[in-house]
Write a structure and sequence with these properties.
9 strands, 7 helices, nine-stranded mixed sheet, globular, alpha/beta, about 250 residues
């Protein structure tokens, strides 16, 4: 992991931008983090819109995490930001837009083509980033995953035992293959669902929640669209991570 810049934010949170091979990322650590007092880590998932565009939301989430005593980190997803575009993904995205604009349901074939290759590429990259982050003396685990493309969160929760709790946002398309993977997820889960999310299949989100094999899982549904998440929903998620990472 190569640190390319660092900045002390006004609330004394240290922000470090880094690269891991070709993958850009950002790490935020609270002032309390040190080799003598390592802190847990929350991986901040996000939609494939690019770190530059998502930065205001990500840094806000990271500052909340730091205030609770957690480090937070994120990486650029494949095909996003300045990373090379993937023609198949661009075609799937265009097919999705055409279906939505025509008022048609997005087919399983389009969802699979859009999401599954992203999961296959992104999850090993998240794991490689986690390898590098856990080598830092000021980060000691345990690790949580928060937000982002829900299928990436499902796969990570299934395959990486270092992740002990996940807060998932049911706001993205779910391939049918993810339901079977969800049955093998057993860590504590906090799932957020916006009831009127215009871009989300509510029933698919409910089916996925039902499929999770976790003994501790909670669904937090709020009225409103994709961007209408109330402040108290974020507070509830923060309490979830405090319970399971400290």
């Amino acid at each position: 992991m190569h640190v390319t810049s660092q900045l002390r934010l006004d609330d004394n949170v240290l922000e470090r931008k880094f690269t891991l091979g070709e993958i850009p990322g950002i790490l935020w650590t609270p002032a309390s983090a040190s080799a003598d007092a390592p802190v847990p880590l929350i991986l901040l998932g996000h939609p494939p819109l690019g770190l530059h565009r998502m930065y205001p939301r990500l840094v806000a989430r990271a500052r909340h995490a730091a205030a609770d005593g957690f480090a937070a980190a994120t990486i650029e997803l494949p095909g996003s930001g300045d990373r090379p575009r993937r023609p198949a993904a661009e075609q799937a995205r265009a097919d999705m837009r055409r279906a939505v604009e025509a008022g048609e349901a997005v087919s399983d074939e389009i969802i699979d083509a859009l999401v599954l290759p992203l999961v296959e590429r992104a999850v090993p990259e998240w794991q490689a980033a986690l390898d590098a982050l856990l080598e830092l003396p000021e980060i000691g685990g345990p690790v949580g995953y928060s937000g982002g493309v829900i299928s990436i969160g499902v796969r990570l929760a299934r395959v990486d035992p270092r992740i002990v709790a996940a807060g998932l946002f049911a706001g993205s398309f779910v391939p049918r293959a993810m339901y079977e993977e969800a049955r093998h997820v057993t860590i504590p889960l906090h799932v957020l669902l916006q009831w009127d999310d215009e871009g989300n299949d509510r029933q698919a989100a409910l089916n996925l929640f039902d499929a999770f094999g976790s003994k501790e899982k909670s669904l937090h549904a709020n009225m409103g669209g994709h961007a209408g998440v109330p402040q108290y929903a974020g507070d509830s998620a923060a309490q979830f991570f405090t319970r399971h990472l400290k």
